[in-house]
Specification:
two-stranded antiparallel sheet; globular; Aminopeptidase; about 30% strand; alpha+beta; binds coenzyme A; 9-stranded mixed sheet; 4 helices
């Protein structure tokens, strides 16, 4: 049985607003042409304060890992969700990924879009050989995907964050065992090398 979801789209901003759409959606690689719609969605979901977040400090002037920036689209091609994974170190020399932002158009909230984006992103990250993923977000949502605070107890982000919202998940068992110290971005050139090795 399909659930009717309502949303509407402005072709200028491709922002989700309210009109009937096909509730089926697909997960695809993010493309250059998705950027405006993605920015519009993030503005709507997180507001202008999104650039002040501590995790943003790990993303500024960086690029998401190749193949790990995904979008959810309706069958009509409207962007209704986004997820990105970024290259970081979880303490000195321990390569990991930072997940975020994960955002879903409010009009299709609780319809499985966030879940589909998360499961695809984790599966692709694992296939690429990545060892672990960190994020800052609601534990009540992310626990169901295996993210736990215990993995980040001894890790430090480059700014203030509620420790209950700083979560980790191992893709390779033991990958975050003993993880401690500063979480830092991986310089782009090195990340490109790592991706090439993992591919
Ligand atoms: C959080 C978000 C990514 C979830 O995606 P989604 O497609 O709406 O949700 P899904 O279909 O994957 O999951 C729905 C389930 O998650 C629960 N859920 C959604 N947001 C939640 C939250 N912030 N905390 C706890 N549970 C949440 C729903 O109650 C529902 O539970 P059920 O399966 O028991 O019915 C999306 O709603 C979103 O972008 N929200 C705005 C940003 C935000 O609130 N982020 C909070 C996490 S940092």
């Amino acid at each position: 049985m399909t659930r009717q979801i309502t949303t509407r789209f402005s072709f200028a901003s491709i922002e989700c607003i309210a009109a009937p759409i096909d509730p089926r959606f697909r997960i695809a690689m993010e493309k250059d042409g998705d950027i405006d719609a993605r920015e519009s969605l993030l503005d709507r979901v997180f507001g202008p304060g999104r650039f002040q977040k501590t995790s943003e400090k790990l993303r500024v002037n960086q690029a998401p890992v190749s193949g790990l920036a995904l979008v959810a689209k309706t069958s009509a091609g409207a962007l209704i969700g986004t997820i990105r994974l970024w290259p970081i170190f979880a303490g000195q020399g321990r390569a990991a990924l930072l997940l975020g932002p994960l955002a879903v158009c409010p009009n299709v909230k609780d319809s499985g879009v966030g879940r589909a984006l998360m499961l695809q992103a984790l599966a692709r990250a694992k296939l690429q050989g990545h060892a672990s993923v960190l994020l800052v977000g609601d534990a009540a949502y992310y626990n169901r995907f295996g993210f736990e605070q215990r993995f980040t107890d001894r890790l430090l982000l480059p700014g203030p964050v509620d420790p209950k919202r700083f979560l980790g998940r191992e893709l390779i068992p033991g990958a975050l065992s003993g993880a401690a110290g500063a979480v830092t971005p991986v310089r782009l050139e090195r990340h490109q090398r790592l991706t090439a090795i993992a591919a």
